Amino acid sequence: MILAEGIEKSFGSVRAVRGVSFQFRPGEVVGLLGPNGAGKSTTIRILVGYCPPDRGRVEVNGHDSIRASLAARAGIGYLPDSAPIYPEMRTVDYLRHRAHLFGLRGRRRTEAVERSIERCRLGDARRRRVGELSKGYRQRVGLAAALLHDPPVLILDEPTSGLDPTQIMQVRELVRELAETRTMLISSHILPEVERVCGRVMVMAGGRILADGPPDALVAEHADPALYRLEVAGAPAPGDSPGAIPGVRGLGAAAGAPGRSAWSITGDRGAPDLREALGRWAADRALVVTELTRERTSLERVFHGLIAGVESGDTERRA
């Protein structure tokens, strides 16, 4: 559905996108994660034909974005981070105007507008001026406009930016429903957004793709050594500690409740879960375990670990 090969884009001395390549299969829902200035929005603008790449190529539904620009763009629905809406127009009139720009006429235009209003739950706002709507509703209007021509590919750039928690939940639910029938790319720097609706994640920073794969696979591939906390009532004999357990790489004292001993324990990378061994160590010494937890690697930790290598002051990142 979407193919990008070696795309690059610079603005003067600023290299916004540097040799980015990927391919989205039909029906995939892909999250594009990255900090502000990572190059996400520039990459999206290249995909939707807003600006051409300096190098590389993009295909959408088999159409080259440069040589067959109109055909490529016709297969994309695009919601930018700030939806281009006319605040003085009523919702239904704005959608009719956008449908006309898509080349829809007569009955086809009417059906497309009504379908988008229903999909985006805008029935109670159809006669209201767009400028009077909450930001959450304006996002829905922008999304309805992107869906008018029923595109097989939908690209959303920060779809929940600036929304309150209730509005985020509403937009998230709508995005999840739309993802059932089309290929989607969702750009965001909000990790929970991507984890909830995307089956594949690309992490971008410094204009490059740093990681690409299913969230679980990324966590497994980039997982830190497991971290444990063990607290017991009482104390072991002097010189005795859980540090001698096979698979323990590091051991440190941790703050515990009065009359208790506590440790922060680091497991070897790739070692099996150590909780059973830690519990057995305590039981063999007649120590009552009051806490035994394992901190699991999350996508958030993987994300921050990946982008940590990109200097925050690197001007080539900003785009």
**Terminal residue distance:** 26 Å
Portion in strands:
25-35%
Radius of gyration: 25 Å
pLDDT below 50 for ≥5 consecutive residues: which ranges?
A: 312-319
Secondary structure blueprint with pairings:
Blueprint (H helix, E strand, L loop, with lengths): L1 E10 L2 E11 L4 E5 L6 H8 L7 E6 L2 E2 L4 H6 L1 E4 L11 H11 L4 H14 L15 H13 L5 E5 L7 H14 L4 E6 L2 H7 L2 E6 L2 E6 L1 H7 L5 E7 L14 E6 L6 E8 L7 H10 L3 E8 L3 H9 L12
Parallel strand pairs: 3-8, 3-9, 6-7, 7-8
Antiparallel strand pairs: 1-2, 1-4, 4-5, 9-10, 11-13, 11-14, 12-13
Helix pairs in contact: 3-4, 4-5, 5-6
Key traits:
single chain, 319 residues, alpha/beta, Rossmann fold, Alpha-Beta Plaits, 2 domains, 6-stranded mixed sheet, 4-stranded antiparallel sheet, 14 strands, elongated, disordered C terminus
